[in-house]
Specification:
By secondary structure, the protein is mainly alpha-helical. The protein has three domains: 181 residues, Rhomboid-like fold (Up-down Bundle), CATH 1.20.1540; 110 residues, no CATH class; 83 residues, Serine Threonine Protein Phosphatase 5, Tetratricopeptide repeat. The chain contains 23 helices and three strands. A three-stranded antiparallel β-sheet has the order 1-2-3. The longest helix is centred in the middle third of the chain and has 22 residues. The N and C termini lie far apart (81 Å).
Amino acid sequence: MIILPAERKLDWKHPPWMTLALMLTCLLVFLFYQAKDPRLMGQAINSYLSVELDELELPLYRDYLERLQLRGDADAGERLGYLDYLAAEDERAGVAVTLLSDPAFLDYLIENQTLVMTTAEREYWLAHRLPIQEQYIDQLSVNEAGLIPAEPSLYRFITYQFLHGGWGHIIGNLVFLFLLGFTIEKALGPGRYLLAYLFCGAVAGVVHGLFHWGDPTPLVGASGSISGLMGMYVAFYGLQRIRFFYFIGIYFNYFRAPALLLLPVWLGKEVYDHLMSEGSGVAYLAHAGGLLAGAALILLLGKGWFQARETFYEPEEEVRDQAFAAAYGAALEALARMDFDTARSRFEALWRENPDRPVALEHLYQLAKLRPDLAPYRERTGELLDTYLRLQQPGNLVKVWQEYQELAERHQPLTPDQHNRVLFAALRNDDMGTAEKAFSRLQNEGSPQQIREASQLLAAEFSKRRMELKAAEYRRQTEQL
């Protein structure tokens, strides 16, 4: 069973670069650094079989597993059965891989060599087995950079998070990293997100090490870090009801639930799987540790350094579009009833909440235009000019300015700065006639500095267009200032 939070949709306008970088790092490590492992293991197997170490170690390994089975290790029985199958099929390579891949068995032999081997066997074993271990097995990526509870090292709490045990392992982790990572990265920003990700992975490694103290088997994979992302996800939403995706067998669907209520469900599942799947090789308690670390990080520091950015709680674009469409429709209904006061208040609310959508302001401008002799029309014109300038819409800016000149300039003159902006916009729109009109307005009320700069600009623009008479006219005006 899989349960994943699915409240957010990815916004490719703002890609999750850090999540993509983490995914790429894991993939590159797997493709290049871990690519040496098959070669090393192949060399180890050939060397191991060439000196017939399997004939010496196989009976000892059976005895070792039987001892574990008597101590209540349920996994030992399964391993014995698998060993019998390999022996029956004469799969010497499979036997070699099994014996070479069990570091606990090697430790057992080193500690008990005088008890389980004769002097001649011990000398032969030491002369051949330990060199194979040092030259090949110890050079495997999991032994170089994996997290080994029996040999804890600070750097391994980070490096193990980028190693994986096979294609199925890495593909599964990368999918979950992407599905969860883009949301947490949006909440924290790339820098704090990376720190939180690595911290959760390190805590997951600590929890695994505490429950497997002295175990020489390496731990690898990003699962603990990804579990931390799940813990952070639900902690950000708290008791807010959010959408979850679930998959059982071949059936999948969505449901809504208070976010934090899923945390004990996930924890219970990891603990149950740990108890019921002993020897599976899956670090369920590391997952539980990552979950708790991620949730605790936000619940304890969520109002401080790990506080979510304000943009994280903004409604998604689809939700905002729906809300805007409903409010815009209500405003248009009021306008159709000629209830101008209600329409005006609704458009004003829309404009305050959606400054990136000028359509509400355009309606306010049209309403104000009903009385061009009054101050509100000038105010709305100024707002619309600023908006079109910010949105880089010079054509609309010039159009509004021209309309204002016809209707209201004699009642409520615009400021010199506004005329100056129109001049620049008209030049960008290659509208020299409007640019000259804006300059004539600027001449009446602008400062000498503004007029000088504008005349110099017009002279240069006319000169570019090979209109030398016009260019000379504006040069003379510049010289007279």
